[in-house]
Write a structure and sequence with these properties.
By secondary structure, this protein is an alpha+beta fold. The chain is 26% helix and 26% strand.
Length: 209
C-alpha cells in the first residue's frame, strides 16, 4: 500500500531525506519511493495472525480514544482509532490533562491499511497495560498537572476587554518586519485585518464565561 503525499512541503522534506542517506524511516519499514512530483511512503503490511504492539493515549474529551480504560478491555469502533508505534507517538489527539497512555495489542486483521512510520489505524485493540507517564514525559511527569492548574489561575489569561484591532494589526506588521530580516516571507494581505479581529472580539465578548 502506498500513501502518496503531493503537497510541496512533503516533496521538500522527502527531497532532503533523499539527499541525506543517513536519514531513513524507522527500521523495519520500506524505504520511500521518490518521483519528480511526489513521494510514496510504503506501509508495512503485517503477516496475518501476528499481533502488533501499539500505544494509545486516552483522555476524557479525546475524539480518538476516551478513557480511562481497563486492562484486558477490548475497544472497537467502526471508524477506527489512531495508535502510535511508540508511547510518544500515541499522544496524537490528546489535548487535555489528565491523560493516560496504554500499551495495546492489535490484530493485523483489524488494521485499515498497514503500519506506518509512526502511526497506524485500527478498528479495534486490546489493552495490555497502562504506561507510567514518567516513561513518556520523564521523571517530573507528576508536576505537569499542578503546573497546568496554576496556569489556569493566571489573571492575564482573561482579558478585561476585547483587543483593539488597530493595535493587533500593528503588532502583526511588527512581527512580519522582524521575520523578514531573517527569512523571505509572503507579503501581508492587502485587506485590513481590523474587520476580522473585530468579528473575533465581538464573538469572544458574547461568549459565556
Amino acid at each position: 500500500m502506498l500513501l502518496v503525499q503531493g503537497c510541496a512541503a512533503a516533496v521538500d522534506l522527502c527531497s532532503a531525506l533523499h539527499e541525506d542517506s543517513a536519514v531513513r524511516p524507522r527500521p523495519g519499514l520500506p524505504d520511500p519511493i521518490y518521483g519528480p512530483n511526489f513521494v510514496a511512503l510504503p506501509f508495512e503490511v503485517p503477516k496475518p495472525g501476528t499481533p502488533l504492539q501499539a500505544f494509545v493515549c486516552a483522555s476524557r474529551t479525546s475524539k480518538n480514544v476516551q478513557g480511562p480504560l481497563t486492562v484486558g478491555e477490548r475497544v472497537a469502533r467502526r471508524s477506527g482509532f489512531i495508535a502510535g508505534n511508540e508511547p510518544v507517538a500515541s499522544l496524537w489527539g490528546c489535548d487535555e490533562w489528565p491523560l493516560q497512555v496504554y500499551e495495546v495489542v492489535v490484530d493485523p486483521a483489524d488494521l485499515f491499511v498497514g503500519r506506518g512510520e509512526m502511526l497506524l489505524k485500527t478498528s479495534a485493540f486490546r489493552v495490555v497495560k497502562e504506561v507510567p507517564l514518567e516513561e513518556v514525559f520523564g521523571p517530573r511527569a507528576g508536576e505537569i498537572g499542578p503546573i497546568l492548574d496554576d496556569i489556569r489561575t493566571i489573571p492575564w489569561l482573561t482579558p478585561k476587554a476585547p483587543p483593539d484591532p488597530d493595535v493587533v494589526a500593528e503588532l502583526v506588521r511588527e512581527v512580519y518586519a522582524i521575520v523578514t530580516e531573517h527569512k523571505k516571507v509572503r507579503p501581508l494581505p492587502g485587506m485590513s485585518l481590523a474587520p476580522r479581529i473585530s468579528a473575533s472580539a465581538r464573538w469572544r465578548a458574547r461568549r459565556p464565561r
